[in-house]
Amino acid sequence: MDRRLLDAAISGDASGILELASRQPSLLFETTPQGNTCFHIASIHGNEGFCKDILALSKSQSLLLLGTINADGETPLIAAVTRSRAAFASVLLRWCNDRQLSEAILKQDKHGCNALHHAIRRGYRTLALELIETEPALSKAVNKRDESPMFIAGMRNFMDVFDKLLEVPDSAHSGACGYNVLHAAVRNGNSGIVKRVMETRPWLVKQENELLKTPVHQAAIEDKVDVLTVLLEHNRSLGYQISTDGLPLLWVAAYWGHVGVARELLKHCPDAPYSTADGSTCLHIAVQRGNIEFVGFVLESQQLQHLVNMANDSGDTALHLADKIPDDSNKDMLIAPSAPPAMDSRLLEAATTGDAKTMQNLAMHDTGVLLGTTPQGNTCLHIACIHGHERLCKDALALNKSLLTTVNLQGETPLLTAVISGRVSLAYFLLECCHDEKLREAILKQDDRGCNALHHAILCGHRELALKLIEAETDLSHAVNKYGESAMFMAAMRNYADVFEKLLEVPGSAHGGARCYNALHAAVRNGNSAIAKRIMETRPGLAKEKTNDYDTPGGTPLPLLAAFRGHVGVAQELLKYCPDAPFCLADGWTCLHEAVNKEHMDFVEFVLSSPELRKLINMQDSNGETPLHRVVRKCNPKMVAALLHHHDVDVTMQNTEGAIANWKLFNASHHAKTLNWNEVSMLMLKADPEDATSLLNLHKEAKDKVKESQRNDIKSLTQTYTGNTSLVAILIATITFAAAFTLPGGYSTDPGNEGLPILSRKYAFQAFLICDTLAMCSSLAVAFICVIAKWEDLEFLLYYRSFTKKLMWFAYVATTTAFSTGLYTVLAPHLLWLAITVCVLTSLLPILTKLLGEWPILKLRFRLGRTFKSELLDMV
């Protein structure tokens, strides 16, 4: 395409091209590499005026330009729609229609989409309606994915466009993957479109998509109850549909757990099919999928209750399948006897408020009314126990003793409920009733967590009640809950010595806890020596029982456990009674290795000072490493010094790789810039001077490694240093610049000296000006060096850092000097002592700053003395 034509089409100004086009008509049909004519380009940019001017040149040319397609198969009309030029697309549509260019309007692009597809897809509803009105045949086209305009309108919920398309005879209604417009309406839950389709094209409801699902099946899968209602009201027989893969609608609803769908199906089709060809019913699949709500619906449904005993082709009933699933919820529902009657609302209110008279009136003619339950399985006795109405409980039991043995959905008897609710006096009463009625099972009953009344009494802190329960029924002490916790373990965990003693008197009473803990573990945890002593006297075997917390082969020696936590007192006590207690694992890992690894300095010092453990200093683990190897790698100078000061230490011992302790510094080279790393290297150099060459080589390698990492991160380092330095430099420059114009003493107003500083003849004032100027100049120089210091070069950065550091120190000293001389100038004539004090303090400030800044290094120098090697600190 001629560049002038392209520019004109983009800008919309055809004035410069009309004369050229009139002389050379073929110019208008030149294209871009994408096959776009000037009309396409103008359509993309929405330049209506350009197109109008071009069309005015020649009728024959206009016909050709409107129908030309580009490399994507787009006419100018499609190009305008796809580029969101809806208004111009409407103009192009009128031009094509006026010139009877139906083919141009109907043209489909390389994806098979026509202008109507694109208009609906992009939400141009007005344009879509205009396209249908102008050329109804657009509605019959489908793209390469079999999507029709009607299907797209259904997917977008465009009701007006959908209705317009539905008026066109034989308009296409298909969608991708075998879907149709009814599938789309069902997906969106659009009952209006569903109703219109069922009135005009009812056969679509039986069409399956590639997943073998009809619109009715889709409604069941997606829980579209409102849509399903419309479909079934139009044709009740749809409820009996079975898909090609043999799935009835009830089975589909059960698979997804959609109770509302199943209820609506049974409402319209009471005998709707419920099983697949292999005999798997909707109850079978609901149990397998764990859809408890659907299982409950089936069991409550008059039409489906018979499925509970129906077997599939493998001979399995729903109960058989439930038995194979770890969750017992479905199983409990299936094997439960017929549900007790629901509790009368008046009885519930009476039990809640403690109205015994109303309860008695209700039970006057039928005491069975007292057995009614809430949805949670609670009887009136449970409710009264929760609220602590003892009078009502007594009256209810006088009418019906069987209430004592009832359990709710949590497996709680009224006795358990009373204990859990903290109704201690009521629990005493119920315990007596159960004892008098010889209802031993009611006392021993455990809830769904395996806890009995004694467990809960101890958990809730009711110690007197716990003692009474043990006295009334000693077998309570034998039970453990689902977590393996016994009543004795709980009592020991809570330091209930009286309850513990009572339980200990019961032969065979359980003592276990969760994770294989026992009552002795609990006593040790709480530091309860009395309980621990009683257990050791009566059940000494508990001291040797292991928990699940440690799984070291061969067990973990006690000194090693003490070292793990750093408990020096424990280790001392162990050695007091067992001087030769085991101190290492089978692989040679000792308690000193452990203490070093966990950096427990007190424990390390204890081991080094203990005669029984001094041999550990040179013991090697499975890798041949001594504690010194480990501590050097940790870069802990205090521990290294402690080990090196021990007389028995051997710094030349090698591990299995032939490395001595010194060489472990290389493994810790990422700490090479820290004082700890350098102090450790100096300590090791002093301890093993024969290996000085290796240490110096190691130091060089570490330095090279640090340099390399800094080279890789030079940009960040440069930004950090220049940013921090420039900030301080600008701050000093600002202070000194401001000080130069707010001179001490002010300015003179005397004739002939107007504007001159009053104190200009004093030497201190002159020193102030010189120092202030030097400070400002040096700080400004640093600030501007920071601006130009953008080279990503490490050597330059090191030079820059050294140079700017000196300048900043000079600026700092000059600033403090300017401050002191300025104050001296003002104060000296009247308060000389104060002026001198200010000068002394400010002159000491740089010295103090230097001392504080280098204090860690100075401490290291004092601590190491002649061992200190300043050259080792030069780590870039």
From TrEMBL:
Q: Which UniProt keywords apply?
A: ANK repeat, Membrane, Repeat, Transmembrane, Transmembrane helix
The UniProt transmembrane annotation reads 721-743, 763-788, 809-827, 833-853
Q: According to its UniProt record, where is this protein mainly located?
A: membrane
Q: Which InterPro entries match?
A: Ankyrin_rpt, Ankyrin_rpt-contain_sf, PGG_dom
| One Pfam family hit | Ank_2
Write down the membrane topology.
Multi-pass membrane protein
Where the record annotates domain PGG, the positions are: 722-826
Per the record, its GO cellular-component terms are: plasma membrane
- What ranges cover the ANK repeats? 278-300, 623-656
- Name under which the protein is recorded: PGG domain-containing protein
Source species of the chain: Digitaria exilis
Its organism's taxonomic lineage begins at: Eukaryota, Viridiplantae, Streptophyta, Embryophyta, Tracheophyta
